[in-house]
Amino acid sequence: MVPAAPIVLAGAALEVALRSAVDELQLTLTERPSIMAYARRLRTEDILTVQDVKDVDQMAGVRNLAAHGKFEDLSNERAGLMEQQVNLFLARLSKIMNPDI
Fold this sequence. Notes:
The protein has one domain. The model has no long low-confidence stretch (mean pLDDT 96). Helices cover 70% and strands 0% of the residues. The chain is built from four helices and no strands. The chain starts with a helix and ends with a helix. It is globular. It is mainly α.
């Protein structure tokens, strides 16, 4: 089994969360909407750290491999790691956006 589907789903969750943060803060993009465009925009507002953006870039790269059919570069282990990374990042972003919760 090729683990592309769970990787793409995790990438979609990442993109939705980043887009929601940009929207919630009423920020505008100066480039085509994408996972990295959202991350860069949040970085310019000091919402995300440099390391956060590096992490997002890595996750976006794995998502792109799956979305563009580069299945030979994917594995079940990589899909599991992607899921963990996205979950950790989403929890961090939630705390940043909702510090009182």
